[in-house]
Amino acid sequence: MDNGSTMPTNGINKALKLQFGLINHESRYLTAEAFGFKVNASASSMKKKQIWTLEQEDQDTQVVFLRSHLGRYLASDKDGKVSCGAEQPDSPGCRFLIVAQSDGRWALQSETYLRFFGGSADYLSCFAQAIGEPELWAVHLALHPQASLLSVARKRYAHLFAREGEISVDSNIPWGSDSLVTLVYLEGKYFLKTCDSRFLSNDGKLVKENTPTTSFTLELKSGKLAFKDCDGKYLTPMGPTGTLRSGRCSKPGKDELFDLEESHPQVIFQAANKRFVSVKQGVSISANQDVETDMETFQMEIDKESKKCMFRTNGGNYWTLVSHGGIQSTATEVEANTMFDIEWLGRSVALKASNGKYVCTKKNGQLSAVSDSVGDDELFLMKLINRPMLILRGENGFVCHHKSSNTLDANRSVYDIFSLLFSDGAYHIKSVGGKFWYVSCSGLVCSDGDKPEDFFLEFLEHGRVGIKGKNGKYLRGDSGTLKGDAATVDPSCLWEY
Fold first, then answer.
1. What is the location of CATH 2.80.10.50 in the chain?
2. What is the pLDDT of residue 105?
3. Which CATH number fits domain 266-384: 3.30.1130.10, 3.40.50.510, 2.80.10.50, 3.40.50.720?
4. What residues in the chain have per-residue pLDDT under 50?
5. Which pTM does this prediction carry?
6. pLDDT tens for residues 438-476?
7. Are 260 and 15 in contact (CB under 8 A)?
């Protein structure tokens, strides 16, 4: 059985685990309580206890398991009594089928007992013989809303084709900010937003405003997503460039299925000689270019265990240490020589190769891991290029403007989209209203600054970033409020981005 770490994918990166909240007919979320492994539907917003992970038995059956935030599985007995205490989904009561409705809501049917799961507040059971309103659940995706979108049939990625004003599904790899899709959730519907803040309409055009033609319901089929429009038709890639628009099908087949994959950070390095690190000249990695193209862009993949970093080129190879300290883009697999340590030095970074030496820029621009200490030649400016829109999620929820003050909440189930602007090794974070973030003297992060203030991004873990203010302290969520006062990094300082 798939343990939920990944879904099978033919893509480049890991397909994201599907995590979501389930909202009942009274607009309340299904909640897993730690006490007695009880479940209820009483919460009005989605926090940690309301997040469920979908696991599938295998690709062939439609059986799914619902795992709570405590790692326990939802189960029903033959009398319809529901609990969430099973550590393994091996009992017959854990097996559910999703019966999708035309409005995108789900009914959950016990595969073993054929009864439907529903109810309200503390009165949940799996005993209904037919589907009524109390047995219908809306699906609110809980994963970070920025991802790469892979067409299952075409094995190609979606990207913004700005000249034609459309989304094309014809990229071999998701490269650059154009390949970032933001899924916006509003009242049970989803909107697909491009990196230039436009929405996809069902006719394939990109528009500035939300309308019924830009709203889709999500359906799941064998662990893949389908997007159904307001007319009951599904998004599909059309024609040679794979223009993403609604097709004629009113049932999703393989052409209408997509995977969401995690979008790794992609970065550009500027060396001490003020030139960009590139693979344009062949296999040697050299700082010898004056323009930023795909050849100067590297995908940064952080190893979950060691926290070391790999750099992938747009040709799909990794940087690797070769004899005499040389750095080349010849590795096709991750191995010890492709692993680098990053040292975060404010505006600059230093890279240490697997031989324990720092990477320096030689006179001819070539990178070589031969230095014992960090001087000017070992420093690089690193610029993140594929997050023009910043959405931050911490351990307790998303970052969002506080309703009535200039502070920021860090525990919301809705998010605000901020702009991230690079400035000489630092970043400025722009609020929804066009004002800037700053850290006040009392350590609060405020969102109404007239002039920009420097923040520093440190990619510390797989999928997580630490953000340092100019006071040298890290941003953290503190009982729901975003503060810039942490001296060291703990889980409250790590943000999905």
1. 19-141, 146-261, 266-384, 389-493
2. 86
3. 2.80.10.50
4. 1-10
5. 0.84
6. 999 999 999 999 999 999 999 999 999 999 999 999 999
7. yes
Residue positions counted in the chain: 497
Q: From CA 378, how far away is CA 241, in angstroms rounded?
A: 43
pLDDT of residue 8: 31
Q: Which residues make beta-bridge pairs with 348? A: 345
Collapsing DSSP to helix, strand or coil, 285 comes out as coil
Q: What are phi and psi of 406, to 5 degrees?
A: -90, 10
Rounded to 5 degrees, φ, ψ at 49 are -70, -15
d(CA 437, CA 431): 7
Cα–Cα distance measured from residue 235 to residue 320, given in angstroms and rounded to the nearest whole number = 40
SS3 333: coil
The third-level CATH classification (topology) of the domain covering 389-493 is Trefoil (Acidic Fibroblast Growth Factor, subunit A) (2.80.10)
Q: What is the pLDDT of residue 4?
A: 35
pLDDT of residue 5: 33
Residues 6+ apart with CB under 8 A from 419: 388, 389, 390, 429, 430
Assigned CATH topology for domain 19-141: Trefoil (Acidic Fibroblast Growth Factor, subunit A) (2.80.10)
Are 115 and 109 in contact by the 8 Å Cβ rule? The answer is yes
Buried b (16+ CB within 10 A) or exposed e, 390-428: bbbbbbbbbbbbbeeebbbbbbbbebbbbbbebeebbbb
Query: Residue 106 and residue 221: Cα distance in Å, rounded?
Result: 12
Residue 244 parent element (H or E) = strand 243-246
DSSP-derived 3-state class of residue 153: coil
